[in-house]
Amino acid sequence: MRYIQPMHDDWTTRHPVQAAALRTAALINCLNDGGSVVDVLREHGEAEPIEVSAADLTEMRAAAVKLRKVFAAEDVDAAAAALNELLARNAGWLRLTSHHGRTPWHPHLDRDDDAPWGEWFLASSCLALTVLVWDRQRPPGGVCASPTCQNVYITQGSGLPKRYCSRRCATRERVAAHRAATRA
């Protein structure tokens, strides 16, 4: 079953769209670099037991490739177009679920509460990223600008657009640029 365990009564403030989008980025990165999907799901509040088969991983990797196009979008129009294509080809009807009374009511785009992991990942990610585009009127994130990194990231807050997935990548690139400039 795909549901997040409620930790306290105010579930909607604990489980915002931003959290689902961050989970999306973490899963895409994990699936790209061979990390533990179960660990990422656990870290993002998925209820035990978490059983992910080899077939599930294959479907999730295919979904991650599709979702990466949203992160690679150059502008909001391209991000919206990528999401519209994914929604048209992969999402079910918008429905509300409480996972048989285990959580407060919330929207889903997968076909049912026991949908395969790949379907759930793609549908829940599309829903979260769609809300971010709608709310912010900009792409929901990006792909790290470091040539040695392929991670995606979620843009948080306002201000200048982010270029790197982490401070570590930004610092590594800044140091490399400085060293190249001092050698020249």
Automatic annotation (TrEMBL):
Signal peptide (residue range): none
Which top-level group of life is the source organism from?
A: Bacteria
Q: Which residue ranges run through the membrane?
A: none
Gene3D superfamilies, per this entry?
Jann2411-like domain (1.10.3300.10)
Q: Which InterPro entries match?
A: ABATE, ABATE_dom_sf, Znf_CGNR
Where is the Zinc finger CGNR domain positioned along the sequence?
143-180
UniProt protein name: CGNR zinc finger domain-containing protein
The upper taxonomy is: Bacteria, Bacillati, Actinomycetota, Actinomycetes, Streptosporangiales
